[in-house]
Design brief:
Helix 3 packs antiparallel against helix 7 (about 135-165) and helix 4 packs across helix 5 (about 105-110). The protein is about 75% helix and about 0% strand. The radius of gyration is 21 Å and the shape is flat. With about 230 residues, it is mainly alpha-helical. It has a two-stranded antiparallel ribbon.
Length: about 230
């Protein structure tokens, strides 16, 4: 009994870590699935704005996934998308009001992009692909993983744009006063160029890691054959 319990816990832990790795890297909603491009390009002029947007979307994603999963057997199939949008809009309204009350500066900086979380492709995609087919806890964890993946992507892109475009990181000066900021990086064309470069770098890293794993697996197989 004890051995079986330990194996179940180990299997659960492995599954949770796999989901987290998928959300952050191997199935990143931004770098791999290329979802949520509008807020990704518009809110990454600074790290502060990017983290605010990412965490707001994560909160909505977790809550909406959980509730949609709870109601998945009640919502009629014919109106499920409309029902998902109504559920998501309720949580977005709550987040919008909380930001306005407690973080007015961030609220002003993000502006219209907070209400637009309602139609964020990442949230609708996870509701349709995962929450509508799985239990509440698994759906909530999926929201955590995908939300953190989205936030991590925004953080990476914003870090590059803020450091190169303003010479600061989280508002703190990184370079000396003589540094000439690359202002194009914080413009819309610069957002596209930065996004493309970061996606290329992440894709190359993931490909290298995958190739390394295949090489190790092949070496283990060869050793087993030799031992046999």
């Amino acid at each position: 009994m004890m051995t079986g319990t330990k194996e179940k816990k180990k299997g659960l832990g492995s599954a949770l870590l796999t989901s987290l790795r998928d959300g952050l890297f191997t199935n990143s909603p931004t770098f791999v699935q290329l979802l949520g491009m509008c807020p990704t390009l518009a809110t990454t002029t600074s790290v502060k704005n990017a983290l605010g947007m990412g965490l707001a979307a994560t909160a909505v994603l977790i809550c909406s996934n959980f509730l949609i999963s709870l109601l998945r057997k009640i919502i009629p199939n014919q109106v499920r998308i409309a029902a998902y949008i109504v559920i998501i809009s309720g949580f977005v309204t709550a987040v919008d009001m909380l930001l306005a009350a407690f973080l007015p500066d961030l609220y002003e900086a993000l502006g219209l992009f907070i209400p637009l979380i309602v139609v964020n492709c990442i949230i609708l995609a996870r509701a349709e692909a995962f929450a509508s087919k799985n239990g509440p806890l698994a759906s909530a964890w999926d929201g955590v993983c995908m939300g953190l993946g989205f936030t991590f992507a925004l953080f990476l892109i914003a870090s590059v744009r803020e450091i190169l475009g303003a010479g600061t990181f989280f508002g703190l000066r990184v370079f000396s006063e003589g540094y000439e900021p690359a202002l194009m990086v914080v413009t819309p064309p610069g957002a596209f160029i930065t996004l493309g470069c970061v996606i290329a770098a992440v894709t190359a890293i993931l490909a290298a890691v995958k190739a390394r794993k295949k090489k190790k697996a092949a070496q283990k197989a060869e050793r087993r054959e030799r031992d046999a």
